[in-house]
Amino acid sequence: MSQSNDMLKQFIPSEFCLRCFGCCRFNQNPSIWAPAGFKLVKDNDGYACEKLDVKNNTCRIYEKRPLDCRLYPFLLVKNDSHLQLGLHKSCCFIEEKQPAPADIQTYAQYLKNRLNTASCISAIRKNPEVSADYQENVELITDLKDVFAKAYLPKLNILTLKDKPRIEGYLLKSKTSLSARHFVDIFIWKDLFQIFWVIIEDELGIFYQDKIGMFMMLPPLGKFKPTVVKKCFEIMNVYNQNSAVSRIENVAQEDIAKYSRLGLSSKLKDIEYLCLRKDLIELAGKGFKSKRSSCNYFVKNYRADFLEYKDSYYRDCLKLYQSWSRQRKGRHQDIIYQQMLEDSFLSFQTALRYYKKLGLSGYVVRLRSPQVVKIAERIKSCTFGYPLNKETFCVLFEICDLNFKGIAQYVFREFCKKLSGYKYINIMGASDLENLKTVKLSYRPKREIGVYNIYQK
Ligand code: SF4
Ligand code: SF4
Fold first, then answer.
1. 20 in ligand 1 pocket by Cβ < 6 Å?
2. Over the stretch 229-238, which tens digit does the pLDDT of each residue have?
């Protein structure tokens, strides 16, 4: 390692290295200080790299020597999900000449930039053991987050509609009735987050990223593998300044124990409610009295049709959302709820724009003329959802003009009537909002399912 080379500018003058016997020789075999993939041969009391010409103290493959040899006395120090540039203080030049910290920093910056280039990343990818958990007499100089992400982490793919069949293949393996286990609920948030997917050891990971950081929208889907969970957290930690942002959302209660065995903690995110479809159609008994009378009131006082959604209703439905959102905001001052309505508009718009491609089911309530003058304003409610499995259907949106008494109860009942074959309707959670929880509970859910987030301790 004593001459300059065309790949990396050397920190140590070649004349110094040529006179030195500090490199290419090792006390042990194997040794983490030896270049990965090279054999060591007996040399006096220790060992030497097989490529060392001991007589001339030169490397026989100097022009093609591996990256670790080119970097030395700088090292790629890897532990857990960190890659850093270290300096081996035992190098004879460093010990004897004690270079100025500013010179070390300048060179480290140069290396950092060079390591981030395609050729270096490819060299590290081909030989990931070029880094190691070096500790003895090593000074850590700078973090190599970007290099780590590119060289050691799987490449994240941006989610598009074309990925739907592949993603659905994994979603179908999921046994839960959680609302998040459908492509629709992943894709419709694309205007709020950059959405990525990756396959690691045949498990699917879905990642959301915004200006706050990156998190997993779903647990890795497939057979539960601790190595995959670890890798997913590594990915998030690289992208997040604050590792507390890294989390796996929408984990089912029955899977919590698997994560806690890995030393991870869980926190209840929400409770989703599952109602019996039969109850929602019949609205029988005391418990549903007010729902029943609301439906009856609507049917008696308004002449309306319940129609399957089609693309020509798109603009009217968006307008309806906005006026409904204003009405809701007027009634509920909660800032989180108001923000939810704003965010939800973007997802609503995406859901409708890709309605057919996403495989949504939807209906509108359209008043018959001549009750209102303008045709464009006749849609007074719309509702959309998707099947989660053979027995559960999830209602994703229900938007109504609240000036029409009983319309919410009416549209929900009519939608449930159309969903023949499903035993349960998942009406989703209340996101910690009391007013929303009251509404959800008023439909007398038969099952409550906990939704958890998983964090690193
Ligand atoms: S120990 Fe340092 S000075 Fe000696 S040959 Fe290796 S890099 Fe050069
Ligand atoms: S490959 Fe060459 S430079 Fe690297 S340790 Fe072996 S002899 Fe030394």
1. yes
2. 999 999 999 8
